[in-house]
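Worked example 3. Consider a protein that binds shikimate-3-phosphate.
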Amino acid sequence: MTVDHVRVHPGPLSGTVRVPGDKSLSHRALLLGALVGTRVEVSGLAPSGDVAATAGALRAMGAEVELAPDPGGALTGHVHGPVGEPVDVLDCGNSGTSLRLLAGVAAGIDGVSVLTGDASLRRRPVDRVRRPLEAMGARIDARAGVTVPPLVVRGGSLRGIRYDSPVASAQVKSCVLLAGLAAAGPTTVVSPLRSRDHTERMLTHLGLPVETTAHADGREEVTLTPGPLSAAPIAVTGDPSSGAFWMVAGAIGEGAVTITGLNANPTRFGIVAALRALGASVTVVDAEPRAGEPVADVRVEASELTGSVLDGVTVVDALDELPVLALAGARSRDGLEVRDAAELRVKESDRIATVAAAFRALGMRFEERPDGYVVPGGQRPQPGTVDAAGDHRIAMTAAIAGTIATGPVEISGFSAVATSYPSFLDDLAALGGRVEVLGTRT
Ligand code: S3P
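Given these inputs, the predicted complex is written out as structure tokens:
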């Protein structure tokens, strides 16, 4: 049974919290771990629906994936490849990362893979991975003119390519690099802006260095030369996208919130940059790096927020955090404008439209733009009911709104949080949040 309908009461949050393992890293630990071909120890993985989807797909491809919760609730265990033609359809659930990255793995396998997912995932674009995989020699098919899943990949006999990606997407880059591992010759991906580099760092951690060039105009060029991977243990660190909810709660609340053990990769810390640009007081204390990734504790204290405009690479670095950041914009003096964020429209929901609907439901102004939003400052959420629209980050954004609202906020479809952060309500309670459960689903 999972909690699906909640009422969050206003009240200040403060204290210290440790969030689940990073979702992006958890997927990559399993996928790259399975490609090593021998037993690889993995720890700290997020016990989330998305990560379970990747684990299930790898099992269908013949890998052994043994994971069990450790005392802190994170998944620890091992993965043992190799992977081959799947014995069944690969159900990626709600997870775009699973589908795009597995498509790259499938392209390197001599056989047929069929990838699908839930109603949300079956609306999300796959032509962005179709083009490079076809150029490498895979045969690709998909629904609606080869644009949306189910996706069929006939793989094997790939050649390395140089691919100019029209989008700064780590999913596209990683898909092509994973296919490149099985290709003849080097593979290069050029992106218009840098994106999260976890795949590159993890490949390097597993003994296969990847060459990255940051061009002066912002373009990023990554080259992989295929070679064997070695079985180094992979420890996953805390998810900054989950930590972002508490960072924003700290910035717009009355006390201070500290999040420990966060992955502090600069390509994931756009939320810290964005909060500082809004005038928030954020302290980052570095900790010991793990598996090639920086780690930090982050403390955010309540302060007067001014306002800002976000665009360019900060937007890419904070993309998944833009829904909850809108709340900080609303509480600021001058408001927040976000540009260059058209990618928000093809996430688990159209996050410009679903944040707009959530703001409307809570009596707040929010102006949609084709590639972003404008939130006027000086606003406080009013009591109301938000539909999570099947999107975990909308559900959690609405919960944070409830903590600073003028009255209780109800959220329907709250079970969506299981996608990334099943223990969200426990952490909310640990920070002093008051939540009533109004409904569950099985
Ligand atoms: C992810 C990359 C991002 C992000 C997603 C996870 C990843 O998507 O929004 O939640 O793990 O590579 P895009 O690369 O498509 O922007």
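Take a moment to read the result before moving on. The chain has a mean pLDDT of 98. The chain has 14 helices and 26 strands.
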